[in-house]
């Protein structure tokens, strides 16, 4: 059934939802990992994304993502390492349970993939924190594919992989003794390593501890978090980061904000001349542990993106390569080894510009990017907005995007590029009713 929309009477944030309703209203149920899900006006998941669900690149021990995943798991060797959790979660799990405010931009249909109003693809591994704590896990890692609508370029892909880690301590004298012991052990290890750390105070007025936490315990947990992650940075980047051999690894801590931790931090590593953001972390909000019914405890947690780190460590220049099945890519990697990727001849890119008048409801860049990706798959290298224009008299707006078509695995002929570009134009007209300029 198609429901006609009248956007003029709706708040702005509903426009796109209704617009999507027009596009997707006749869609059949979505099938994911053998399960059928009904669709509704919220549905915005595309078949290009559905195709990626279940690929589980990080589970392949000789894929760069799998190699990195194993390296991190073996670093935290006494943590329970979980994989294979279903990516379909409720918005409550992904956002509400973690204290995301109702108006957080991540919830928007332009930023996340919704299967229907009650289910979405997780946007981060933190979506599984509550259920993992609730199972009684005290020190754990969780690796998974996560999904976010995004622009298209060499470092953004709507499917990527994260690892979440957490460690729970009892909020009593025994927990305090465990923390003191572990902190002494880790400090000793770091003091003997070639690492320089730029730190921030664990707790400040702008990065406060939680009122429910004992001040001494909160400091000890924050310190344990920092020491544990500094030690992970040594495992990942030590001896690999410096331009010259023997140079120390430089790690920088920055105050951050996440709805589900306080205090919160980001970690950056100085790698081949640049500061690179590696992960987010903090002391878990007590309401998360309360929701999981874990009493009298305090925990830290972190989350990191595997692609970003693997691109650095293996010198992989384009995020799409992780999905390549070309033997020239896959044969370069061996389980347990970090080696430098040797680029093979890149096939030439071929760009086409597309200029059109926007529909009166507007068109988000992510809607355009998803349409291109859904039409041409991985044959799009990047999409760049090169011009926006509003006609002074008619007030009509237009946009011009440059789409770079390029295959990772073969040469794309100009004829083929023309024909897929024509398909993009035709889909753009069908779905959004735009007028080509
Ligand atoms: N979930 C966050 C993200 O995707 C990363 C993160 C930050 C995870 C802080 C954590 C954390 O566990 O404590 O950006």
From TrEMBL:
Q: State a single Gene Ontology molecular function.
A: phenylalanine-tRNA ligase activity
Q: Which UniProt keywords apply?
A: Aminoacyl-tRNA synthetase, ATP-binding, Ligase, Mitochondrion, Nucleotide-binding, Protein biosynthesis, Transit peptide
Which EC class is the enzyme in? ligase
Major place of residence: mitochondrion
- List the EC numbers from the record: 6.1.1.20
Can you name a GO cellular component term?
A: mitochondrial matrix
Q: Which residues form the FDX-ACB domain?
A: 345-437
Q: Which Gene3D superfamilies match?
A: Bira Bifunctional Protein, Domain 2, Ferrodoxin-fold anticodon-binding domain
Keyword set includes Manganese: no
Q: Which residues cross the membrane?
A: none
Which Gene Ontology BP annotations are present?
A: phenylalanyl-tRNA aminoacylation
The identity of this protein, by name, is: Phenylalanine--tRNA ligase, mitochondrial
Task: State the organism's lineage.
Answer: Eukaryota, Fungi, Dikarya, Basidiomycota, Agaricomycotina
């Amino acid at each position: 059934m198609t429901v006609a929309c009248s956007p003029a009477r709706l708040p702005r944030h509903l426009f796109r939802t209704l617009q999507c309703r027009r596009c997707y209203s006749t869609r059949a149920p979505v099938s994911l990992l053998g399960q059928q899900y009904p669709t509704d006006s919220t549905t915005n998941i595309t078949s290009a994304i559905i195709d990626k669900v279940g690929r589980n690149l990080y589970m392949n021990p000789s894929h760069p993502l799998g190699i990195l995943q194993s390296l991190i798991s073996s670093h935290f060797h006494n943590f329970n390492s979980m994989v294979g959790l279903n990516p379909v979660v409720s918005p409550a799990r992904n956002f509400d349970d973690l204290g995301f405010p109702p108006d957080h931009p991540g919830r928007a249909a332009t930023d996340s993939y919704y299967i229907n109003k009650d289910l979405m693809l997780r946007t981060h591994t933190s979506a599984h924190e509550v259920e993992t704590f609730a199972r009684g896990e005290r020190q754990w890692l969780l690796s998974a594919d996560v999904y976010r609508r995004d622009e298209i370029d060499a470092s953004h892909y709507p499917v990527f992989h994260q690892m979440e880690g957490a460690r729970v301590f009892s909020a009593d004298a025994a927990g305090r003794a465990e923390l003191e012991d572990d902190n002494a052990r880790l400090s000793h290890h770091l003091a003997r390593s070639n690492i320089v750390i730029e730190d921030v105070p664990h707790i400040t007025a702008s990065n406060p501890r939680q009122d429910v936490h004992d001040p001494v315990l909160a400091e000890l947990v924050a310190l344990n978090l920092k020491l544990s992650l500094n030690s992970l940075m040594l495992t990942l980047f030590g001896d690999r980061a410096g331009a010259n051999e023997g140079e120390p690894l430089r790690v920088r801590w920055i105050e951050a904000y996440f709805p589900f931790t306080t205090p919160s931090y980001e970690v950056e590593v100085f790698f081949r001349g640049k500061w690179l953001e590696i992960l987010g972390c903090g002391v878990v909000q007590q309401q998360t542990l309360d929701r999981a019914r874990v009493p009298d405890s305090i925990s830290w947690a972190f989350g990191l993106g595997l692609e970003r780190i693997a691109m650095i460590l293996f010198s992989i220049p384009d995020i799409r390569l992780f999905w390549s099945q070309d033997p020239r890519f896959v044969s370069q990697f061996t389980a347990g080894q970090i080696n430098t990727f040797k680029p093979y001849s890149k096939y030439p890119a071929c760009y086409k510009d597309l200029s059109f008048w926007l529909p009166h409801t507007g068109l988000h860049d992510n809607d355009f990017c998803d349409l291109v990706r859904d039409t041409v798959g991985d044959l799009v290298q990047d999409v760049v907005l090169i011009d926006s224009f509003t006609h002074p008299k008619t007030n009509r707006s237009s946009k011009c995007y440059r789409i770079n078509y390029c295959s990772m695995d073969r040469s794309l002929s100009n004829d083929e590029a023309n024909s897929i570009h024509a398909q993009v134009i035709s889909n753009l007209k069908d779905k959004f009713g735009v007028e080509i300029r």
